[in-house]
Design brief:
98 residues, alpha+beta
Length: 98
């Protein structure tokens, strides 16, 4: 079992609260949060224009208490399959940890 630091736990809680106040237009439901230092890799879910499930992956940086900004917009991706989105998020996590 992976140990989660108190800081990572706090960042996760802050991001959940922030995301409720700032939902993404196309993918408003947060499905998974991966914390790497002061960054959050978010997988969110919504319904696309073709009425099919879509999953967005984005990287946000904690810039203050309950404040997050897109850190690198070019890392964001859209998927039609949750497992593909999760694999991409895990790849981003490895890159951010190195």
């Amino acid at each position: 079992m992976v140990q989660v630091s108190p800081y990572a736990r706090r960042v996760r809680q802050e991001f959940k609260a922030w995301a409720k106040m700032h939902p993404n237009f196309m993918t408003p439901k947060v499905r998974q949060i991966i914390v790497v230092d002061d960054r959050v890799i978010e997988i969110s879910e919504g319904i696309g224009f073709e009425h099919k499930d879509i999953f967005g992956v984005s990287v946000r940086k904690r810039v203050g208490e309950f404040k997050f900004e897109i850190e690198r917009p070019n890392l964001g991706e859209l998927f039609h399959n949750f497992n593909e989105a999760l694999a991409y998020a895990e790849e981003l996590k490895r890159k951010l940890e190195s």
